[in-house]
């Protein structure tokens, strides 16, 4: 059985921009799914402790007026994901003019992951 491929994201989003972020994410999810994503999940942090050495808050340099967002997109496999990303990067619906990011994209952490267990 082939397990899905996952793109993961962590960001700091101003609490005041929660609704704008959700609207941004909904638009992006539609486009991701159009290009083959199985699902897109957005999670708003409400129990994200500060760490001593590392933490989500430290990683994204969260400010007091921000929340940590943890999200992921699942793809059938890496090949579908790779083909989609080349299209996603040029899709006008995801341009900063059409769907502006309501957070500091310089503090966004992202990566692609091979799923090794789904229980």
Keywords:
119 residues, alpha+beta, 4-stranded antiparallel sheet, 4 strands, 27% strand
The gist of it:
The protein is an alpha+beta fold and 119 residues long. It has helices at residues 18-34, 56-59, 78-88, and strands at residues 5-14, 39-44, 66-75, 109-114.
Describe the structure in your own words.
The radius of gyration is 15 Å and the shape is globular. The two termini are 13 Å apart. Helix content is 27%, strand content 27%. It is built from three helices and four strands; from the N terminus they run βαβαβαβ. The protein has a four-stranded antiparallel sheet. With 119 residues, it is α+β, with helices and mostly antiparallel strands.
* Low-pLDDT regions: none
The secondary-structure element order is EHEHEHE
DSSP helical segment count: 3
Largest sheet: 4 strands, antiparallel
Structural class: alpha+beta
**Quaternary status:** single chain
- What's the β-strand tally? 4
Distance between the termini: 13 Å
Shape: globular
How are the strands of the biggest sheet laid out side by side? 2-3-1-4
Per-chain topology:
Layout: E1 5-14, H1 18-34, E2 39-44, H2 56-59, E3 66-75, H3 78-88, E4 109-114
Antiparallel strand pairs: 1-3, 1-4, 2-3
């Amino acid at each position: 059985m082939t397990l899905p491929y996952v793109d993961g994201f962590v960001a700091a989003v101003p609490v005041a921009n929660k609704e704008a972020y959700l609207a941004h994410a909904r638009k992006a999810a539609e486009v991701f799914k159009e290009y083959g994503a199985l699902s897109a999940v957005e999670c708003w942090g409400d129990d994200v402790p500060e760490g001593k050495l590392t933490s989500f808050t430290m990683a994204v340099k969260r400010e007091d007026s921000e929340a940590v967002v943890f999200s992921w997109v699942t793809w059938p496999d890496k090949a579908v994901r790779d083909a989609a990303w080349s299209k996603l990067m040029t899709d006008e619906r995801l341009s900063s003019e059409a769907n502006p990011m309501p957070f500091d994209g310089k503090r966004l952490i992202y990566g692609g992951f091979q799923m090794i267990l789904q229980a």
